[in-house]
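Help wanted!
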Amino acid sequence: MAYRQTALTRKNAEDRRDGLLRAARALVATGGFKAATVAAIADRCQASVGSVYSYFDGRDRLLAEVFRSAAGHEVDVVRAAVTGAGHSAAERLGALIDTFGARALHGRRMAWAMLFEPAGPVIEAERLDYRRSYTAIGEQIISLGLADRQLVPQDPGLASSAVMGAVSEALVGWLRPESPEPSAEEQTRVIDGIREFCFRALGVRAA
Amino acid sequence: MAYRQTALTRKNAEDRRDGLLRAARALVATGGFKAATVAAIADRCQASVGSVYSYFDGRDRLLAEVFRSAAGHEVDVVRAAVTGAGHSAAERLGALIDTFGARALHGRRMAWAMLFEPAGPVIEAERLDYRRSYTAIGEQIISLGLADRQLVPQDPGLASSAVMGAVSEALVGWLRPESPEPSAEEQTRVIDGIREFCFRALGVRAA
DNA sequence: CTGAGCACTGAATCCGGATTCAAAGCTTTG
DNA sequence: CAAAGCTTTGAATCCGGATTCAGTGCTCAG
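Answered by r_m:
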């Protein structure tokens, strides 16, 4: 079952690699990086521990790839939401916060893993990039908003970091694995609250 | 040199325990929790690895104690600053942010370890408490400020978390071990920026 | 002076994974 | 059908610390 003609072998190899990535991703989404041991990943594909190493340069690389692709996707979605959200700084920042917040609250465990779970240096480096992507989006929105005085004068870099921090910290209580799933009302209350907090902080004119 | 009369033995034991705590603390302040291995801690006291275990229930407990005492002290200092800072919400919040920020930027490595360094579950639990202490202080200030309309209506718990997040995230860039020491001007610029951000967010009336 | 009682010592051991690699399974080619 | 060339396998090995504990040193009461 595992071996086809050589013509198909390449495809097969890609499938297998992909399967490992998906397995790892599923494990992370379920139990965080901690749960994605090489053995667990292999198991989930009916593969052997050793074979993992013929597709990846070790666990860290594999998980980094999982992180990267998940992060890339998240950032893309948020960026799309921002782009499709009208031209005022308020609309764009609102889209950023709402989209980010709502998605985090839906894939709670995954979001927690990506944003907060203690992990080794390799993941930590990916995480830094990931957070920076959001900060960069925010910074751009703020800079533009500053240009035509939609916002109160301020350092856009600092403000964007602070926004990201405010959003993360307000969410983390709900994302922690041991905390209970928030009800729909709670979710909107939190996100609305954060949005308003950030709008005030940035001095968004008009509502 | 290590053994006195029994009358003094108790004191001696306390000294030794204390020495280990101090050694651990120094190591954390220098290289983070990661650097505070049992061997390193013991070394620094001319003690043996084994002896550590006659004073503590294992590394985690020892480090948790280090964390707790450092955290307790930090929180005390901040609380004192807040208390001694006049009665307006603005003054108090300003004191909270300034004190916390300035202290973090001075003991950068220690602050980073306590606020951000990835670590095991025991430290993580302590950290949660630590952060909550600050959030509680902030929440109290905000609640009071809300009562006599010094602040815009908002959920004080959420707002306080968001403030803590904004402050942390704005600082973390400067706290990371690999980032360079910020100049005095940079320090005040960051802290001033954060304070203003938070004041706006909370809707502090008057400046 | 002696041995009972503590505290100290650090080499040996344990632990939880990650990583390796010789052996074994398929497939294709000649 | 046999050999060559791949992938796969998973038990053995490695790794970085934490933890243990039999042996040793010191003090003091008797």
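OP: Thanks! One thing I noticed: Residues 79 and 137 of chain B are 7 Å apart (CA to CA).
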